[in-house]
Structures are given as C-alpha cells and as structure tokens.
Amino acid sequence: DSAPQELSAGQETVVTAIVEESAPAASKIIEGQEPTVRVGLFTTEEPIIFISSYTYEIKNTAGEVFCQLNPNEEASVNYIEASGVYNINCPSASFTSVSPVRVEPMEIISFVELKNYEKRLRWLPKVNNNKFRGVIEINFSQDAGYLWAINEISFEYYIKGIAESADNRHPEFLKALAAAARTYALQNLKNPVKHNGKGFDVDADIDQVYRGYAFEEQMPYWSNAVDETRGIVVAYKNEVVTTPYFARSSGRTRTWREAWGGADKPWIKSVKTPYDRGYSRLGHGAG
Q1: What is the per-residue burial (b if ≥16 Cβ within 10 Å, else e) of 23-37?
Q2: Which of 164, 180, 221, 283 is the 20 to 30 Å CA partner of 248?
Q3: Cα separation values, 37 from 41, 85, 113, 114, 253, Å
C-alpha cells in the first residue's frame, strides 16, 4: 500500500489511502427485503411504562391481542419471575400472559417512548434516549435469567440509531462510518452466535452503541449519511466481513493480529494516521 495522502478540506484534514487493486470495496449486497434487527436494549426488574403520540397494539408472541394504545395513553408491562407471568396494564383493563409481550405500531411512521427509562450520552446529556421506532418486546430470557426490553426494527433505522459519533464530523467520515456500522451489524445477523438464547441479535451497549429514535432526531447529518450509503457494506471475495472501528489510533492503525492475535485479515491492514500522531490510542486500534 502507498502512504496516506493528506488533503486540505476547509478546517479539517482528510486522509485518503491508495490501496492495491485487490483490496475490498464497499458493495451493495443487501438484496430484496430489508432485514429486521432485534436489539437488546436493557434488562430490568421494574415495570416498563409506554406512551406515544401514535397508535399501538399490545399483544403477545402467541398472537393474542390485549388492547389498543391510543395516542397519549399510557400502558405498562412487568414480569413476575416466580409465576412466569407478564402483567399488562392497559388504559381500560389489565391482563396476564405467559408469552412475551409486544408493543407494535399500527402506523408506518411512529415511535414509542419508554416513559420511566433513563439513558443519556455523556456528550449529549440533555437528551434522554428513550424513544424507539418499531416494536418493543418484553421478553424474559430463560437462558440468561433476565427480563429484556428488545427493540425489533428495520435494518436501516437501526443504523440511524447507532450513537458512535457526533453529528458535526466531515460528511465523508460519516458515510464511511455508516458503511462500517452497517457491515458490522449485518455480520452479526449472518452469524448469530454471540447472543444465543437471549432473544436478540445485537446488544445496544456491548456491540455498537444504539440509542434509537431520540438520538436519530438529534443527528440529521448522520441520518443523511445513512441514507446516502443505503445498503452499502464491505465485502472481501464477495463475503461480508467484520469491520471493527475505534476512536483514535496514535499514529497508525493496527492489524487484526496486533489487536486480538490469530491470523491477520486481508482487509484490515496497518496504515499511517498522521493526524493522530502524538495522541494516546483510544480503543483496539484495528479497522
């Protein structure tokens, strides 16, 4: 590989690298129907309170419908482990279920707020990230022994909710990050072993940081970057690869072997990062 070239772009430095022709290129390989992602949001022993400006239906995974949650009405769900029963408190009546409970939107564009859930980013403390598109499922994992709140959401909306960068970064950086984040997520879907038995595909904290619709609201440039790269993932020899990324290098990136041992990956090579020279490394350094 050639050494990176620095190009001036306003107040920022953009670094590009000339790579050999056999290096992997981003490929649009998500074909046909958009995948659905199940995100493990958090565990809890407390009731979860739901409210929305949109209409939702509360049902269970067995298909039993309990009630309709109209705009600005509240409902709550909790789980009694001793009896293995979910308690559902609708506006007009209460119900019980032995199957996991789902809060499903009845409108295409909608989000639901988890009223008593508190989740803030250190660098965005004024925003409580407690709003989510798609379905919220309350599911007790027998294997893990915890009650999980799971967000079932379409793939591209999941990428929009990933909170791995501020919104004021260079547009090309955000697009590159979107492709890397999308690839990482798709790799998890194709190889679902990490969270076996928990009822979800990815964890909102230990995989990629995911904060849902409330984060998406605050990040219009990130949302645009996701739209502009829709369906683009990184492949090597026509196979989706693992695309780790990190915060800061320290002058060069690391190979897979340097970071984790084992065999190196052809698509993860060490390149110079002069803009990080002199800084401490934040993260594993590979990517």
Answers
A1: ebebbeebeeeeeeb
A2: 221
A3: 12, 26, 19, 19, 30
Phi, psi of 83, rounded to the nearest 5 degrees: -105, -10
Q: How far apart are CA 165 and CA 32, in angstroms?
A: 29
| Environment class of 184 (CB within 10 Å of its CB; exposed 0-12, middle 13-18, buried 19+) | buried
pLDDT of residue 32: 57
CA distance to 23, 59, 193, 254, per residue, from 179 (Å):
16, 35, 22, 20
Q: Which residues contact 213 (CB under 8 A, 6 or more apart)?
A: 111, 131, 132, 133, 161
For 183-214, the pLDDT digits (tens) are 999 998 988 888 888 899 999 999 999 999 99
Which residue has 């209460």 as its token pair?
94
In this predicted structure, what is the pLDDT of residue 211?
A: 97
**Residue 104: C-alpha distances to residues 1, 75, 138 (Å):** 50, 13, 11
- d(CA 279, CA 62) in angstroms, rounded, equals 54
139/148 Cα distance (integer angstroms): 5
Residue pLDDT, tens place only, 228-270? 999 999 999 888 899 999 999 999 999 999 999 999 999 999 9
Q: Looking only at Cα atoms, what is the longest distance across the chain? A: 68
Share of the chain above pLDDT 90, in %: 76
Taking all residues of the chain, what is their mean pLDDT, rounded to a whole number?
88
Contacts of 32 (CB under 8 A, 6+ apart): none
